[in-house]
Amino acid sequence: MSTNYFTTPLKPYGKDGERWPINGMFESFFGREFENVPKENLSEFLKSGLDRMNPNGLVSLLPDDTEGCDGDVRIDLVYTPSCAVAAIGIYLLLKDPSSVSDTEKQKLQILLNRIFSNGVAGHGYGADEYRRKILCMFALTGAKSLIDRYPDFCPQMKPVLTEQLELVRKRPEGEPSWTNPRDLTGLSIQTIAAWNGNTEPVFVYGTLMQGESAHSRLADAVYAGKAILRGYAVYSVSWYPGIVPEEKEAVLGELYYVSKQMIPGMDEYEGEGTLYQRKTVTVETQYGKKEAYAYIYLQKVSGDPIRGGRWAGKENDPVWYACYGSNLREERFKDYIVGNEHPRWGKPKKGCTDKTLWTDSMVMEYPGQLYFGNSSSQWQNMGVAFYDPDAEGKTYMRLYRITFGQLLEVWKQEGSGENWYDSLYPVEITKEGIPVYTISSKKRKAFNLPDEQYLEVIRDGLVLECGIGEKAAKNYLKQAQKRE
């Protein structure tokens, strides 16, 4: 959780180059931290900001009204605090009009009209992202409700924000230029959802997901992509699932933005307080991390967690299988798909029921550590590759796009028991919404050096097929052979 910037009054900054914590302020807005701040503190924040208004009608945190400062400084110390103060003013005016004095209302009007007099500002590198952040800030604090309730309060606000929202809808990923350094889809989804009153992020993993029996309950919600919840396991507890805290496990589900009015109905459906508890968790989406509500199962569970954390997974669903050992070589991995009685390396392979080859492949680098452990009869009773996602380091992985059903059969051929690869680990969700899985061990295996032929297969996979330089591959494998 970021620092809550709404609990203390705004103060000017000196001339020593120190800038207002602009990113932290945005994160406070996106996390809706202002909703948890006492009204008195918000009123003080608003008053302190309005008291800093300069003759141009904007809030300035500069020690004086310096006209000669560069554009980035004015964005940080004038335009952004102006928008922040105006957004909090909108929130207070809607929540409790009596908490905003007549004088403050007049100043707020001047401030809003000044902000929107020339559209939404932006400057230089990341300008498109900045404008969308400003738009999201106003959406979350109720700008649409202000326009509907008090249309004459700031007549310029509606056409400016409407135009900006249309641009976001047309190109949610952002404008294709050097001013847009990254994909903005996640921010755009939250902005559009908030504008329509859907401000509450909720992670669902069972009957509320797409294609499931209760999905119609989310008809008015905004879908925000697939997501991973780590530190929990999902179990079949009846005709529906439940999740409980469990280390080294993860749950795959979907993220939605719902309205505050929808939460009581969801609580009732889930049996909140008796069968489930609604709790704030952190999920990993295809667009980044997000705090969201999730319904945690309160009863006892039995049996094993559902494989791969996918309660509603279909066998023909596309997945990426991330390999870091001998399956870096395509020839080697092909044996696991089509089968081979006389493979070049290792024992005969049965192959998958569906022998369709992968439809795409790519190389990725993920945090975590490659190490060697166990004892494999296929490789001279020496160690084989394992992946520890919690250890420091980096791991090169070759990703193959196959089906979830094929992944389960490959996992079984690799050895899905407790003594081998008992973890089907979701690494991430791609931008296209496809989960990336790898296999490893929940518990770190005892260290065991690998056979030289096994190392050669991995080295050739890294150099010949993954594009890793020979020196880099050598150092990478040398590091993996160090005993921890």
Task: Write structural notes for this entry.
The mean pLDDT is 92. The protein is an alpha+beta fold and 484 residues long. The longest helix has 25 residues, at 71-95. The protein is built from 13 helices and twelve strands. The strands form three sheets. A five-stranded antiparallel β-sheet has the order 1-3-2-4-5. The protein has helices spanning 22-30, 39-50, 71-95, 102-115, 127-140, 143-149, 157-170, 185-195, 263-270, 330-338, 404-414, 452-465, 470-480; strands spanning 200-204, 222-236, 241-258, 276-285, 288-297, 318-323, 361-367, 369-376, 382-388, 394-403, 423-429, 435-440. A hairpin with a 4-residue loop joins strand 2 (222-236) and strand 3 (241-258). It has three domains: 22-195; 200-309, Hypothetical upf0131 protein ytfp, CATH 3.10.490; 318-480, Hypothetical upf0131 protein ytfp (Roll). It is elongated and about 85 Å long.
- The total number of structural domains is 3
Uncertain stretches: none
The biggest beta sheet reads: 5 strands, antiparallel
Task: Give me the strand/helix succession.
Answer: HHHHHHHHEEEHEEEHEEEEHEEHH
What share of residues is helical? 25-40%
Q: Whole-Å distance between the termini?
A: 33 Å
Separate helix tally? 13
Which structural class matches the secondary elements? alpha+beta
User: Averaged pLDDT, please?
Assistant: 92
**Biggest β-sheet: strands ordered side by side in the sheet:** 1-3-2-4-5
Whole-angstrom Rg: 27 Å
Query: How many extended strands?
Result: 12
Strand content: 15-25%
Shape: elongated
